[in-house]
Amino acid sequence: MSDLTQQPWFAWAVLVVVGLPVLTIVLTEVEARLVRRRSSMARPVRLLRAFILPVGALLVLLTQIPNTVVSNEGGVVKITATVLGLMVLVFVLSGLNTALFLNASAASWRGRMPSIFIDIVRIIIIGVGLAVLLSVVWGADVGGLFAALGVTSIVLGLILQNALGSIVGGLLLLFEQPFQLGDWIEYGKVRGRIVGVNWRAVHIEVDNGIQIVPNSSLAEGAFTNLSRPTTHYVETVAVTFTENDPPRDVIDLCNEVARGLPRLAPGHEPSTVRTGAGTYATSVPLVTFADSGEANAELLTRLWYAARRANLALNGADIWQGESTADVEVLLRRAASRLRLDPDGLEGLAARMDLERWAPGEVLQRVGQVPTAMRWVSGGVVSLRVPAPLGGELAVLNLGTGDLIGQTALTRTGTPWSLTAVSEVTVLVVPYDVLTDLVRQDNRLARELGQEIDQRKEAVDAARAQTEDTASRRATSGAAERA
């Protein structure tokens, strides 16, 4: 027995017999835990457990067998060592890819790394690994091969330096990512939106076509990414009113409409100044230059509606065109039964009411706002919304033709919801004094208005409860998955 333990291969054999099962059990448990957590590291661990450990143990045993049985310089040992080396190379590539790039966030340098760079690094690692295997295991001279490759690379670089310059410039732009598809950039006299990026050039959509700019020019020159301003971009919109319109009313109207634009930069306020006789300029802070076109069009569209409601003549338009007392009387006859009106007294009542039009996206009533009048919806869709528990707004229900909004004008109280026009909305305005007269004439109207307010409050409570229940179930499901 003492002679057996004194053999040089005995310690290695014991190490393989004991260590291989222990390491296999440990790696199996580690892999199972990674699989339960859905970790991408499970694949490299499986490769280490199922392939590298057994082949490594076999190579250790083969090297300890006496040369009279199996020569250490023989083909079996070299082939086994080569297989082990290739497996280790695959393990290294898989581990680096998983640890560095697979779970990288888009904001990190790993997430911005172009795939071509990753492929180049993989090729270098594979080349170095194969060279080490050929040199260590098979005793090959790889120095001459590397020298030949180096000379060839220098010659190709000199021949293709112009083409390679654009490719390298493109790779550097892809890695740094100073812009993305859809961004607006300004390069010299070129201003447009990026619609394509490749290794050679950037395609920029301008007013009269597609401008193709080589990557090397962008990499060496200076350009401005208008979609990534340091603070915000200011769009200035010029509008004209008549000289009879009070300037203070015009300025307040323009600022109020601009505040409701969805593309307004958070935390910033628009401003309007008078630039001449009846001319004004409204400055709207935006997040990016890309929002300027839509913000400009949306502001002008909403100003048309708001100016008519405020009796201000935008661009000298006839503010009463299509909105005469006769039109109000037509709507009043349609709403007579809903408002419990006497058909014989509509003609005198129409003079005390008004007709309003609202653009899509405009807010007719804000949360907590006390309405100054009740409105009967003649056409269009109005969305009743409340603040969502996790931010934003929660759409509760849609109101359409024949529905009433602003019923709390009677009680002079605000409501916990907002009203937003989904489409163009036309309403018949019932001022507070008219509303009180209608309620005195028929007490049933007040009772019906109170019931409608209660029904909408119940709908709001139900929508909030459903949203909170859904969020709670999602949180519980997510916690269960993480566990």
Description:
The chain is α+β, with helices and mostly antiparallel strands and 483 residues long. Helix content is 50%, strand content 18%. The protein is built from 15 helices and 16 strands. The strands form four sheets. It has a five-stranded antiparallel β-sheet. Strand 12 and strand 13 form a beta hairpin. The chain is elongated and about 125 Å long. The mean pLDDT is 81.
Distance between the termini: 52 Å
Binned, the helix content reads: 40-55%
Q: Which quaternary structure do these chains form?
A: single chain
Q: Estimate the strand proportion.
A: 15-25%
Structural class designation: alpha+beta
Biggest sheet descriptor: 5 strands, antiparallel
Task: Give a count of the beta strands, DSSP E runs of length 2 or more.
Answer: 16
Unreliable spans: none
Q: How large, in whole angstroms, is the Cα Rg?
A: 38 Å
- Would you tell me the overall average pLDDT? 81
Q: Main sheet: which strands, in order across? A: 4-3-2-1-5
Shape: elongated
Number of helical segments?
15
